[in-house]
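Data availability (excerpt). The following record was deposited with the supplementary files.
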Amino acid sequence: MSKYRARLPQLEGKFFLTDGGLETTLIFHDGIDLPCFAAFDLMRTQAGKETLRTYYERYAVIAKNNGMGFILEAPTWRASADWGAKLGYSREALAAINGECIELMLELRGSFESANCPMVVSGCIGPRGDGYDPGKLMTPEEAGAYHAEQIAWLGEAGVDMISAFTVTNAPEATGIVRAAQAANLPVVISFTLETDGCLPTGQSLPDAIAAVDAATRNGPAYYMINCAHPAHFADMLAQGGAWLQRLRGLRANASKRSHAELDAAPDLDDGDPAELGGAYGELLRRHGQISVVGGCCGTDHRHVEEISQAYKRAA
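Predicted structure:
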């Protein structure tokens, strides 16, 4: 059941953690084959459900031990129609497994939430295409029609909000926001950035945020950055501007490699957790509006623990 849909606590002054790189952890640390990077597919078996439960529990404990809130991002990033079809799911089966993923998140909240550690359940969605390459751009109308189906499933299952990660372009982000608005769900947009701090389309982050806000009447609750190392975007943030107040979250990569290098690499570059934590600390000192942090590709619970400690030092 939704608990925070009408009032997201991460917007009210408390610091929130979320998890790290779910898919890279499952593949490289747990040795699990994930076709299409589809973590939701693990829900088909009891063993898979327990693997996911253990993964999230590790992060929930970090948040609780540090007196921070936690956002439970459901493993539904690939659970939309096109990706589900590639894995052999019917629409009915895909709707059901989206609901099962949210049920797991609600169970985890019931087990770990406390007065000092509120836990927000988020329906995580991903781009229709690749998270690194925008490919052929959809119009906002096309994107809204595509994503509305999964957003509706997640809303019916009881999420507090929708989070769209690895979004590569403003038109798709606009469609996602409009679909969430139509479903009366708060929505967060997290853009993929390249090593130059721009979206894969070449558009700057400030311009992308301005475009989506203009097209949706400031629809997103806030924006995030993901799938880039802090070294790739710190200088861009340092340039300042009013748009920074719309940026409330970071989920950075452990690696400084480009997306092309990450795609071609046979190994996992998990970087240095302490160094990544230090980079977050610098960003948090400079940008006090940021209230949601976690990791993306290559990160795991070690990185998020370091980030939590960096926040304490910066606060």
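Summary of structural features: Residues 69 and 184 are 23 Å apart (CA to CA).
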